[in-house]
Amino acid sequence: MRKPLAAALFALVIAGAGAAPAIAAPTPTLTPTSASASVSAPVEKSAPTIQAVDFAGTVALSNCSGSVVRLPKSADTDPALVMTNGHCLETGFPEPGEVIVDQASSRTFGLLNSSATRVGTLRASKVAYSTMTDTDVTLYQLTTTYAQIKNSYGISPLTLADTHPVAGTAITVVSGYWKRTYACNVDGFAYRLKEGDWTWKDAVRYTSACQTIGGTSGSPVVDNATGKVVAVNNTGNEDGERCTENNPCEVDASGTVTVRKGINYAEETYNIPACFTTGNKLNLSASGCTLPKP
Fold first, then answer.
1. For residues 54 and 62, what is the distance between their CA atoms, to the nearest angstrom?
2. Is 54:34 a contact under the CB 8 Å cutoff?
3. pLDDT tens, residue by residue, 264-290
4. What is the pLDDT of residues 23-42, one digit of tens each?
5. The pTM is what?
6. Which region holds residue 285: left if phi is over 0, alpha if psi is between -120 and 50, else beta?
7. Cα–Cα distance between 210 and 228 in angstroms, integer?
8. Distance between alpha carbon 223 and the CA centroid of its chain, in Å?
9. Using only C-alpha atoms, what is the Rg of the chain?
10. CB 204 within 8 A of CB 231
């Protein structure tokens, strides 16, 4: 996990994926995957059509990336939610074990259209949920509904998948801050991902093609086949160090530590929908909700 971009710029640190965004040297933009697979044997079923992944619904924060998201059962009239990392919270990193709910906020977000043009500014009414314990996520509630955003800007939210991501899935990390995309696959999952004082559970590990950089923190990780968000981009091992800040390590169920220099990670989001009820209201006591509680 890396420091928010402003702090990293001040420290002159070159960062990777998420928790500690940093200075980024210009790098080629990786274009979203938009091809569809085909099969040659007539007896086989056609592979799912691959969705074109673009920037519509993503947002730029002052120091990170994010996206306007809806839950599978959200209504158009519900107050919209913006998702980013816990370490992107404007009041600073939540401490290990800390969970923040219903905290007043007036933070603003630059809303992007499909071609990464900023089309409007959205404003938070509160931090609905934020933590860096077990996961690394902040969910802001906005002053506007999904319908109002659609009517004003023609932009629909991204939908959070409510099922666990699958190894091998083709994904795109979409950064609203840098207006760049990174295409790769889910390489696997880290039982525990430890970085400094923080530990995250069941983290998504990317294949090496996703060389995310500082400022991509909070970017939605989109399943190319469904167009749904399966994770939120957050960190990467920069220097090959063991379990230090900016150098997360993987810890398996037996306690064995693995360091993967240059590999980046995201935190799963499939468990978020169960914690929100009618009207996009947070209910950490709801059946099936496994997010950490205050």
1. 21
2. no
3. 999 999 999 999 999 999 999 999 999
4. 222 333 333 333 333 333 33
5. 0.86
6. alpha
7. 18
8. 12
9. 18
10. yes
What whole-number distance in Å separates Cα of residue 291 and Cα of residue 133? 9
Structural contact between residues 129 and 160, judged by C-beta atoms closer than 8 angstroms = no
Task: Encode burial over 206-220: b for 16+ CB neighbours within 10 A, e otherwise.
Answer: bbeebbbbbbbbbbb
Can you tell me whether residue 9 is helix, strand or coil? helix
Residue 234 token pair? 């957050």
- Using CA atoms, how far apart are residues 27 and 48, in angstroms rounded to an integer? 31
Q: What is the pLDDT of residues 77-134, one digit of tens each?
A: 999 999 999 999 999 999 999 999 999 999 999 999 999 999 999 999 999 999 999 9
Over residues 232-269, the pLDDT tens digits come to 999 999 999 999 999 999 999 999 999 999 999 999 99
Tokens 């506007």 — which residue? 144
Question: Across the strands, what pairs with 230?
Answer: none
Q: Label the pairing between strands 65-70 and 158-159.
A: parallel
Q: Where are the beta strands (DSSP E) in 42-136?
A: 58-60, 65-70, 79-84, 99-104, 108-112, 118-131
Number of C-beta neighbours around residue 101 at 10 A: 16
Of 273, 294, 262, which Cα lies nearest the Cα of 100?
Answer: 294
Cβ-contact 7, 18 below 8 angstroms: no
The domains found in the chain, sorted by start residue, are: 1-28+53-294 (2.40.10.120)
